[in-house]
Specification:
Strand content: over 45%
Helix content: under 10%
CATH architecture of the domain at 11-323: 7 Propeller
CATH superfamily of the domain at 11-323: YVTN repeat-like/Quinoprotein amine dehydrogenase
Distance between the termini: 37 Å
CATH topology of the domain at 11-323: Methylamine Dehydrogenase, Chain H
Number of strands: 59
Oligomer: single chain
Number of helices: 0
CATH class of the domain at 11-323: Mainly Beta
Radius of gyration: 30 Å
């Protein structure tokens, strides 16, 4: 049938809106310095950077901060992340390096620009690329610039390959063997010879003019996009060991492509005039899907963020397509500042939002709740499962125990301080408690007796948190000069002071707000000056970019040691390689995370308490859907294996 109607051999374009995405639009009122936006990039801290005609804007997913200095950063065309975590910006009047940090950024000029072509400056560069060895390449209207060790070299291209596009010139990618390939605006293919420091042309793509997008897919295959659609090109290796074109195919027709992005299974293509499309790049005849909700408008760039969200730059601001990673729990009920969450005992969940204690019960459609107790005149500060019930500490010093049978028992222990500030678990069905305004620690035994420990010798001014690891070692943290902990072991039966060495300035006031432990029982500390991990006798930053952040809550997933960090500006996840950021755009009720209000239940569900309620994240470590599993039928006796759907299968 396809051969009989060649004019209809165009791809089938389906018009759908995937339900897993939500649309968020950002403009001047959200802090963008101008709504005409060009290039996009994400740094290792999770911030999104936008190049505009005015300068740069940085977004935390909630609002934008603008940068307009140095003046040359205006009219930016290309943004990329370097291998060292810094960013590179190619703008009309120079190449700039951006050194991001959590609270600000430093921007410096690497190569100044010029309005007249000279040997020492760049001339209206349109794109930038960093090779594996750190060499930087830029594309100009009719040339390629190589920048290495402070030295600039320009390679001129044939005039017929020059670009007169305002935003695009030539394109770069590296093959799997590290060889740099240049795709010129009008289809010339070049390889960079590192030994001779020269560009060598090895092919010309026929009938491919005005190439405005290139994306390397691996194994020698890459995509090009222009005003005629999407092409697939495969490179092979010639007899001389140099690349050759082995296959070219017009994959998608009638799309005027402006940029590409890809996930594990999909290629996303933005267009100059018709919105956003996607197709599966493993198919020979892919069907393109039009995303209708962003609109049939001009997009200049696309970025797939670390959490699989899509950022789109346009002439009317930034559009964010995001999956809601978090699901709010009982938002019409639990909507105040969360004080504590308990999930780790008896497979039951309890939440205190200040004046009410809830039992949260899963159902087929979500969750329902039971009100365990209310305290209109006092705050329910901290809670714990204890003796077949829930124990709550109130701000007036009272302890209230509500059994699973609904029996309420109230008591006011003799305290040196004002009230029980925090309760955590021991390893013998007992509880450990710290007091407000007292250097005393209580061990509440399962038989109801209390053992008191005088720790007036401690240099900690006030206690904030107390936790025991899987080795039975108990640690206490609070506010002190430098990082100071109390440590208790059952073998010694007493508390001792532990002051790990660190790189913090001497005398720096530090508050340990929360702590948790790795699978090996190593303490990880959420402090007012960053997140630290105890390594022997030292406290070292978990990740340099987390220095000086006021970490209020922390939870370590003991399945994989991923670390979740709550702050006043959202939730951060650290997987050992990079940092992800989540806030209200991700589905959290508020970007303000409470103190000690992050926990992971026995099913691996992440619970986060915020200033306006609770949210959960399930299956948090898979951003992309996996491929459908294959059923393999094996007959060991005959030595046969079959895959139904691919091989004929007869069952008798």
């Amino acid at each position: 049938m396809k051969r009989l109607i060649p004019l209809l051999l165009l791809i089938t374009v389906s018009h759908i809106w995937p339900q897993q995405f939500e649309v968020h639009r950002f403009g001047i009122k959200e802090g963008l310095n101008i709504e005409l936006t060009k290039a996009l990039c994400q740094d290792d801290l999770g911030f999104i950077w936008v190049a505009t005609d005015v300068g740069l804007s940085r977004s935390d997913g909630y609002s934008f901060t603008s940068y307009t200095s140095p003046s040359g950063i205006a009219f930016g065309k290309s943004l990329i992340k370097r291998r060292n975590g810094n960013l590179l910006l190619a703008a009309d009047l120079g190449l700039f390096e951006i050194i991001p940090s959590l609270d600000t950024a430093t921007i410096k000029t690497l190569i100044p620009g010029t309005r007249q072509l000279t040997d020492k400056k760049v001339w209206f560069p349109k794109s930038v690329f960093e090779a594996a060895d750190g060499t930087i390449f830029l594309s100009e209207q009719g040339s390629i610039v190589r920048f290495r060790n402070g030295n600039l070299k320009r390679f001129f291209l044939p005039k017929e390959e020059n670009s007169f596009n305002f935003l695009r010139a030539h394109h770069f990618f590296e093959l799997d063997n590290g060889e740099l390939i240049v795709v010129s605006h009008n289809g010339g293919l070049y390889r960079y010879d590192t030994k001779s420091d020269q560009l060598e042309k090895f092919a010309l793509l026929i009938n491919q003019k005005n190439i405005t997008a290139v994306k390397y897919l691996g194994n020698g295959r890459f995509l090009t996009g222009n005003n005629r659609g999407v092409y697939s090109i495969t490179l092979g290796v010639g007899k001389d060991g140099k690349p050759t074109v082995s296959d070219t195919k017009h994959l998608v027709k009638d799309l005027s492509v402006s940029a590409f992005e890809k996930s594990d299974e999909l290629v996303f293509a933005t267009t100059w005039d018709n919105g956003l499309f996607s197709f599966r790049y493993g198919n020979n005849d892919p069907a393109a899907t039009l995303y209708t909700e962003p609109g049939r408008i001009k997009f200049n760039d696309i970025l797939r963020g670390r959490n699989s969200e899509l950022w789109l730059s346009s002439e009317s601001g930034i559009i964010l397509l995001t999956r809601r990673h978090f699901q709010e729990v009982l938002p019409e009920v639990i909507k105040h500042y969360v004080q504590d969450i308990v999930t780790i005992k008896d497979d039951l969940t309890y939440v205190s939002d200040g004046n009410t204690l809830y039992k949260v019960i899963p159902t087929e459609k979500g969750y329902r709740h039971e009100v365990i107790m209310q305290s209109p005149d006092n705050v329910i500060l901290t809670i714990a499962r204890f003796r077949d019930g829930i124990l709550a500490s109130l701000s007036d010093g009272e302890l209230v125990h509500v059994s699973d049978n609904g029996i309420t028992t109230r008591s006011t222990p003799d305290l040196k301080g004002k009230f029980i500030k925090y309760i955590s678990y021991g390893n013998s069905d007992d509880l450990w408690m710290i007091e407000e305004a007292a250097k005393e620690i209580l061990n509440f035994r399962s038989d109801g007796t209390i053992i008191r420990y005088d720790v007036s010798f401690s240099g900690i001014e006030s206690f904030s948190t107390i936790f025991m690891n899987n080795k039975g070692e108990l640690f206490v943290g609070g506010t002190s000069s430098g990082i100071e902990l109390l440590k208790f072991t059952h073998a010694s039966g007493k508390f001792t002071t532990f002051i790990p060495a660190s790189n913090l300035p001497k005398g720096r006031l530090v508050t340990v707000n929360d702590m948790d432990f790795t699978r090996e029982g190593i303490p990880v500390l959420a402090t007012s000056v960053g997140v630290f991990v105890i390594k022997g006798q030292r406290a070292e930053l978990l990740e340099n970019s987390l220095s000086m952040v006021n970490a209020r809550s922390l939870s370590v997933d003991d399945r994989n040691d991923n670390v979740w960090i709550g702050t006043e500006n959202g939730l951060y996840g650290y997987d050992g390689q990079g940092i992800s950021h989540y806030d209200v755009v991700s589905g959290l009720p508020s970007k303000t995370i409470g103190t000690r209000t992050i926990t992971i239940d026995d099913d691996g569900v992440l619970w986060v308490g915020t200033a306006e309620g609770v949210a959960i994240m399930k299956n948090q470590y898979r951003a992309e859907p996996s491929s459908s599993p294959l059923l393999l039928v094996l007959n060991r006796k005959l030595g046969l294996s079959l895959i139904p759907g691919k091989d004929p299968l007869e069952i008798t």
